[in-house]
Write a structure and sequence with these properties.
By secondary structure, the chain is an alpha+beta fold. The protein contains 10 helices and 14 strands. A hairpin with a 2-residue loop joins strand 13 and strand 14. It starts with a helix and ends with a helix. The N terminus is likely disordered.
Length: about 375
Amino acid sequence: MKRIFQTLAASLLVVISLHVQAQMPQAPEMAAKAYLLMDVTANQVLAAKDPDMSVEPASLTKLMTAYLVFDALKSRKINLTQTLPVSERAWKMPGSRMFIDPKMMVPVEDLIKGMIVQSGNDATVALAEGVGGSVERFVQMMNDQAKALGMKSTGYKNPEGLTAAGHTTTARDLATLATRLIRDFPEYVPYYAIKKFRYAGTPAANDSNRNLLLFRDPTVDGLKTGHTDAAGYCLVATAKRDFPHVGPRRLLSIVLGTSSENARANESQKLLNWGYTAFDAVKLFDPGQAVATPAVWKGQAPVLKLGAFGPLVVAIPAGSAAQIKTQVVRPEPLVAPFTKGQLVGALKISQGEQALFEVPLLVLESVEQAGILGRAWDTVRLWIK
């Protein structure tokens, strides 16, 4: 039940709509087939090009594999120190490898590092078999999880990302997956910041993370590269920088179909830097702070506390903070019961007279129905009103 609530709360804390594109800063020219930039802290898409175009994910597929592995760790189906066998299937995987073989029993944590840092297809298959029992079962788990996360345009055929008919995704779905990975498993996200790793007995030259931004920008702490001939060079990158009055602010860039390893890093860096300079982050409310406390009818409490469970931060065009206006929009009357996490209304954000976007408002504290007398009295009051 707790997990369902967390999922609901996370999924609701997104921007409902962006009304006025003309008010938004112009994104830089990008040498990529598709891209998307998201302010994870504010839950806003800042810029995008062809975000719903179907693309091959290549090794970005491993983000979903990691999501399921992290979920298995969190639910204690597996643990970091236990060892997993290396099957013939894993050992013979083509492409990027960790260079493990069937004579080895490899700790889960090392397989995770091999999958993330070295993008090892062999490590990925070993983890898939360890969590799902078989690659085929694990792929079904991947597709089920994609549906649960709302990734409507994604289909998986394997856990590692080699080209296969029907193995496709979109920049928007990748943004959804990466954002949820960061939010749902913060204890495991640091694996994506590891610059170098190799398993004992494997080639020393195969030790560097392919995400070049980890070596160039100290604020970048993930996430994953991908490359096949069909997909081009792809990178899902995330950075976290501190800002006054807001604290850590995380941006996420998805850059797909560039021409080289260096190009995907350069284009991702360009997009991240633009996002941090073209938009200001403004904290409107602290976590759990009531945005509005309207009267509630037929309830055991006189008011309903509406807000967000995380800090309510918005990203706005740089220098426009003084022009920002907010307005609470909600149904009337509000009649109990209400449950914690329930969506009730929205906070409209405007720049001057121009509507920008809306943020959902959630019930911060449940309000149960009043007793028979209380409900009867409020029925009369509502009738008179």
